[in-house]
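#structure-requests
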Amino acid sequence: MTKLTFWVLLALTVLSVLYKNFWCRYLCPYGALLGLISRLSPVKVRRTEANCIHCHACTKHCPTLIDVENKDVIKSGECFGCMTCVSRCPSPGALDMTVKAGKNIRALRPVHYVLLLVGLFYLVIGIGVLTGKWHSQIPREQYERLIPQVSRMEHPG
């Protein structure tokens, strides 16, 4: 391990002790991509003040530490749509995953939200396959040669 690696790991460890999920919230490139998608998405968590009982369950259980209870719409780039706040809310109709189409806002049932995400996932893969971008550079013969050796490549445990 180089000195630079040591100091970077030490800094990340200290910062992770001081700030919950430091790497994920501030440095992770995947998290930044999710945040960008979240900001642009028409699907958001919305809170209905009239139904909220201010029990703090949504804010307390948010993995990204968003103050859900004090927002009408969660527009934060840190929200990646895990729906933990919605599932932990004891008050029906206080928090919903919603989709905005023009001026209309409709609540999404969790099963529809999951189907939407799975459909989007396969749409992206389908586009990759149809455009010829979803293939490996490794020829099939090389895969067939390597597969029997997989057990030798495992980490000792």
